[in-house]
Write the structure tokens for this entry.
Amino acid sequence: MRRRITFSVIAAVLLAVAAYWWLRPDGMTPSGTRLTLDQILGSAPPGFRRAEAPGSIQLPADHGPHGDHRAEWWHFTTTLEDEDERPLAVRLSLFRLGLLPQPPERPSAWATQALYMAHLAVTDAAKGQFLAFQRLARNALGLSGATLEPARIWVEDWQASYHHDDGPAFRLHAEQGHLVVNLRLEPTKPVLRLGGDGRLSAAGAGYAMTRMQASGSITRAGRTLAVTGQGWLDRAWGTQIPGGGQVRVDRFALQLEDGRELLCLRWHRGGRERQVAVGTMIAADGSSYRLRATDLDLRAQDHWRSPVDGTRYPTSWQLRVPAEKLTLEITPYLQDQEVVEALRYWGGAVHVHGYDGDRRITGSGHLELTGYADAAASP
């Protein structure tokens, strides 16, 4: 089961966190409460459809909602440069959690069948700043939702939408105080089907767009910067979220300058570490093949301690893929890219430098480190 997880574990967990707070009888968050992955991962209530097989991907229909499944998410990450070639990164993640398999019978405008949550993060490496925000809303009164034609997902005034008018592309828009993000992401490679080797991912079905041409603008404090770069979309839907035991997950989504991408994940459970649980190598032409634990050598090189409580995150790595003659050094744009919400995790942009045989190679990507604060809090 563990070797079948190929997309963001954080997305599934955040949905469970959202449900926990919204379904409390008093509707309040207890002061000082910390949730762990083990507490909130688990099975869905009956009535929701289960993803029994990977199946085919139908686009653009699968960009839209899958309301018969309990959970789904749209996870966009980008690495960008402004006009002066200064590095920036933006992440926008939108999540839906089904509370009921059928519409509620209560005749209330506030009655809801689902919750939506969104996370927005911006990394400004030149200024040494990391900004992270969260939105949570009921699927009622137009506060949040998702539509199929056209595909649009929104939580208040944060949204992702899919358009064909100037070529197939996603448009991202989010406003938070003086911060405004407007991005266009155009897929440039074939879709990577999750579970494409015939096995279903532990949390459901879905796909990834591992190389998207990004362009747009970021406005901060009244100053608008034009940006360009690369984007990545993880898209998944499912019913059951894997649980059972203390969990930590290290997830790497890397884009190399030669057009290849590398997706890999290291899984820890109950204090025992697996070097690499799963990996996928995507060639420049979009073809891909699975990398098993014996195909990769992944080692932490440096750590960063959270000022919150000293939680220690492995933020710098060396990754070797002998079959590809790759030796990669992975370092963060900023050491402090920790998100401190009901679920704490480190999620941020990374630089990639190394060698393809004797040739130097560079790249960029995103790293997610989940469950470390949970482990630190354990007795």
